[in-house]
């Protein structure tokens, strides 16, 4: 989950925990959060995740970035759910969102992508005899994360260009160039992968 | 040696190359021409990214449309936009990605990648997020990712177009020092002084093929 950006080097216990283990804990936590229905337990889970930010000594700047993304989302979802389902239900949904997204963000901040890719490749190695290609899946993860960074860069540039033409409220002025550039990026990336021998078997 | 024999190509109705016959034994060759002159398509044929509609291409006697894998092992390719060629999140991982088929261990790949990065002025950037490097550094990274495989030929498709003057110079000086045969597609004419041969394309045909000075003089009369 790319809310606050990327890995931040550090030496905390959370940074030193192996990527595979952390990833499983994250998946487990996400599952638990969606099974829990009690606001108290969910609130407790949120508190534990936030405690993790303290343990990992995440900088205030990064915490601020997370808050800027999470707060508008939570406010919007809370308002909508309150209107549709009532206050208690809205609170439960929002606590789930906060716990899951904050935990995922903590994972990205404390884990190097290379380590995630390597952990996934290693975990999938026994499946190689069933035709699964662990290196391909590792590449897929690396490319996905790289694509998020590239496309957010493209989105920012397109938004600037739209603004320069006084079209910051126009959906087409954003969507058309964004799509065109995304598709072109896909073409160029495909070519670059081919040139580097990916697909040559 | 790179050879083009009666090469022609078209995208839909539009003819981009016709009757190109070239033998390129020189170590430093440049393709020059206006936008849409066919020079990038010609360069892409050297490693089989584009296959000719007519005629054939040979790299050391191998045809890229038949032995694509073998040719791509000999031919490195650097594109215009480094953002599209960097496929891994950090500089070190991206260079190591090139080595994934070489049978080296993960640690050996990382060490080799760090060595190559250091050799080309990116020492200490192995753990740096690749998308946060400057434009010039990204293009150096793309070059490192190719050179780590020690190809015989390096094809560069307008590699300096997005760079500032200082980085353009640095990049071309770096190319000049390589042991590889270099095929450079470019608009930066003043960078070609030390080249052995400049081929000017116009409308999909070779219109000049000479040493840099006369070839570029011809090109300049073409555009004015």
UniProtKB/TrEMBL annotation, chain B:
It holds the Pfam family ABC_tran. Belongs to the ABC transporter superfamily. SUPFAM superfamilies: P-loop containing nucleoside triphosphate hydrolases (SSF52540). The keyword Repressor does not apply. The keyword Magnesium does not apply. It comes from Microtetraspora glauca. It comes from the Bacteria. GO terms for molecular function: ATP binding. This is ABC transporter ATP-binding protein. Signal peptide: none annotated. InterPro entries: AAA+_ATPase, ABC_transporter-like_ATP-bd, ABC_transporter-like_CS, ABC_transpr_CbiO/EcfA_su, ECF_ABC_transporter_ATP-bd, P-loop_NTPase. Residues 2-223 form the ABC transporter domain. Keywords: ATP-binding, Nucleotide-binding, Transport.
């Amino acid at each position: 989950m790319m809310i606050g950006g990327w890995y931040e080097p550090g030496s905390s216990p959370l940074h030193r925990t192996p990527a595979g283990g952390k990833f499983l804990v994250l998946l487990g936590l996400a599952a638990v959060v969606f099974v829990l229905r009690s606001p108290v337990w969910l609130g407790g889970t949120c508190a534990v995740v936030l405690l993790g930010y303290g343990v990992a000594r995440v900088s205030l700047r990064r915490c601020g970035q997370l808050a800027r993304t999470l707060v508008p989302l939570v406010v919007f979802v809370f308002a909508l759910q309150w209107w549709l389902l009532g206050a208690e239900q809205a609170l439960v949904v929002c606590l789930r969102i906060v716990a899951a997204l904050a935990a995922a963000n903590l994972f990205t901040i404390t884990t190097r992508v290379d380590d995630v890719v390597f952990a996934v490749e290693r975990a999938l190695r026994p499946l190689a005899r069933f035709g699964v290609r662990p290196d391909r899946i590792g590449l897929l993860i690396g490319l996905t994360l790289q694509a998020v960074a590239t496309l957010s860069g493209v989105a920012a540039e397109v938004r600037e260009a739209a603004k320069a033409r006084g079209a910051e409220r126009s959906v087409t002025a954003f969507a058309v160039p964004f799509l065109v550039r995304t598709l072109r990026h896909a073409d160029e990336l495909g070519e670059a992968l081919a040139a580097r021998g990916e697909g040559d078997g | 040696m790179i050879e083009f024999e009666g090469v022609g190509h078209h995208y839909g109705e539009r003819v981009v190359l016709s009757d190109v016959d070239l033998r390129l034994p020189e170590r430093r060759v440049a393709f020059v021409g206006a936008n849409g002159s066919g020079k990038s398509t010609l360069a892409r044929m050297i490693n089989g990214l584009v296959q000719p509609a007519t005629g054939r291409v040979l790299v050391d006697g191998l045809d890229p449309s038949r032995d694509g894998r073998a040719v791509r092992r000999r031919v490195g390719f650097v594109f215009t936009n480094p953002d599209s060629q960097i496929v891994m999140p950090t500089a070190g991982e991206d260079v190591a990605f090139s080595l994934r088929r070489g049978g080296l261990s993960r640690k050996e790949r990382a060490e080799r990648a760090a060595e190559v990065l250091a050799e080309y002025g990116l020492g200490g950037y192995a753990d740096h997020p690749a998308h946060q490097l400057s434009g010039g550094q990204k293009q150096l990274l793309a070059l490192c990712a190719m050179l780590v495989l020690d190809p015989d030929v390096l094809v560069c498709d307008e590699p300096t177009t997005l760079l500032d003057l200082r980085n353009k110079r640095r990049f071309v000086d770096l190319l000049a020092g390589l042991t590889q045969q270099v095929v450079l597609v470019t608009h930066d004419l003043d960078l070609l002084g030390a080249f052995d041969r400049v081929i000017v394309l116009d409308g999909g045909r070779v219109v000049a093929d000479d040493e840099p000075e006369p070839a570029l003089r011809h090109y300049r009369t073409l555009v004015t």
